[in-house]
Amino acid sequence: MRTTAAAVVMVMLCMKMVQANVKPQRDFDLQRFAGKWYRVGLAYDSPSFVPYRDKVKASMGIITTLPNGNVNLTMWDATPLGCQTQLYQYENATVPGQFTYFSTRHNMVKDITVVDTNYTEYALVLKHKVFNIEYTQVALYGRSPKVRNDVIQKFKAFALSRGLSRESVLTPPPAENCPPADSER
Ligand SMILES: *[C@@H]1O[C@H](CO)[C@@H](O)[C@H](O)[C@H]1NC(C)=O
Ligand SMILES: *[C@@H]1O[C@H](CO)[C@@H](O)[C@H](O)[C@H]1NC(C)=O
Ligand SMILES: *[C@@H]1O[C@H](CO)[C@@H](O)[C@H](O)[C@H]1NC(C)=O
């Protein structure tokens, strides 16, 4: 019994350490991060998401910045009901490159960390909830619907290092006509 408790504490400490070492992109520049991105990679281990893995598409999103450092992310998702837009509001946290976000789906506040970006090509983003792999997501955003293979490899390695399973790491095909060609900015 005692060893079990000790093991639990050890695991929690290890998780906390893993948690603590996620640093955002150094000298994060919000203005350069704004604009159009494609979510070309997604790693997500939630059991409720497994049935949707083969239906995911590389959605397009636009990041607009607000004067206080908050961010609006508009995503276009190809769904069985057609192309739908969704707005996500990320709140500026105390460290540049870090945001918080209230997930209506999970009814909890999550942390968003822009782990690595070169602004003109890719951004590696971690969405997480301390201690719970089920609510952890790693996303790879590209400025275009296709990114270089070494960037994809970097994304995969990072997702695995966060404890996500190999099967959870997806590089979905582009969304077709979503947003509809005539409305694309
Ligand atoms: C985000 O919040 C931090 C801490 O309050 C602040 O220092 C920073 O200037 C804000 N970022 C922007 C882009 O306004
Ligand atoms: C961000 O989203 C909020 C809520 O919909 C909206 O009121 C606000 O105008 C948006 N800001 C920008 C800069 O898009
Ligand atoms: C970012 O990616 C682009 C596209 O491959 C590349 O040309 C550029 O050199 C990269 N910038 C940095 C700072 O790595």
TrEMBL record:
The protein's name: Lipocalin/cytosolic fatty-acid binding domain-containing protein
Pfam families listed in its UniProt record: Lipocalin (PF00061)
Domain annotation Lipocalin/cytosolic fatty-acid binding: ranges: 34-173
Originating organism: Monopterus albus
Keywords tagged on the record: Signal
InterPro entries cross-referenced by the UniProt entry: Calycin, Lipocalin, Lipocalin_CS, Lipocln_cytosolic_FA-bd_dom
Position of the signal peptide: 1-20
Claim: Signal is one of the keywords in the record: yes
Keyword Manganese listed: no
Similarity field: Belongs to the calycin superfamily. Lipocalin family.
Gene Ontology MF: a single term: small molecule binding
